[in-house]
Amino acid sequence: MQGEKMVDAIDVEAGVNVVVMKFRALTGLFTQIRDRETTAQEYVHYSKRLMRILAEEAISYLPTSQTTVMTPTNVPYTGHLSIIDTNPEKVCAVSIVRAGDSLLESFRECAPAVRVGKMWIQRDESSKEKNAVHSCTKLPKGIDDMSVILCDPMLATGGSSIAALQTLVEEYGVKQERIIFANVISCPEGLNAVGKAFPMVKIVTAWVDDGLNEEKFILPGLGDYGDRFFNTV
Known about the structure:
There is one protein chain. The chain has 233 residues and is of the alpha/beta class. The protein is 35% helix and 28% strand. The chain is built from eight helices and twelve strands. Strands 1, 4, 5, 6, 7, 8, 9 and 10 form an eight-stranded mixed β-sheet that branches. A two-stranded antiparallel sheet has the order 2-3. A two-stranded antiparallel ribbon has the order 11-12. Helix 2 runs antiparallel to helix 3 (40-59) and helix 3 crosses helix 5 (99-110).
């Protein structure tokens, strides 16, 4: 099956801190959102289902604490709880506007009390390398002492992601090892670029595609995620 091959055989350099999700449900969901005939309403429906799975997976890599609960059968059970459930004020989900807002909402559905940050970063489509242009940032106070989930559905060249991570790490003092970068679809070029620039940042991706074309678009891809999700195609 193509989906299984794409997950298991990816051309990513050694040392890149990436987790590629392995869920049978993903193949069907990706087939739906890749289809150019999928309507805007259908795209939102299937991508939300996919992003909820991604959100739960990314959350599982946040710090946890051991806890013991009593089951209805009066038997104690010892497990772990995520910091996003025990102390959501210590977690900030940061979206790269606009497409990142769609993924951000999946995290807020999982944890409504999570802190929220926004970064306005777009790639310059007129430039050959699609350079990232950073316009504005709005983050909560004390973010340097929080775990951060960076949200951007697509990781292509890595330009926007690296610009966002540079802002978080260099300007706001967030430690790399406290950042989880969640994205729906990625490619080896973007994974390698982000991994080289920020080796301690954990990348959690639902899918790794073949690579980029000359215009720096992911192939086979799914089009512009933000345009399709927000129906501005």
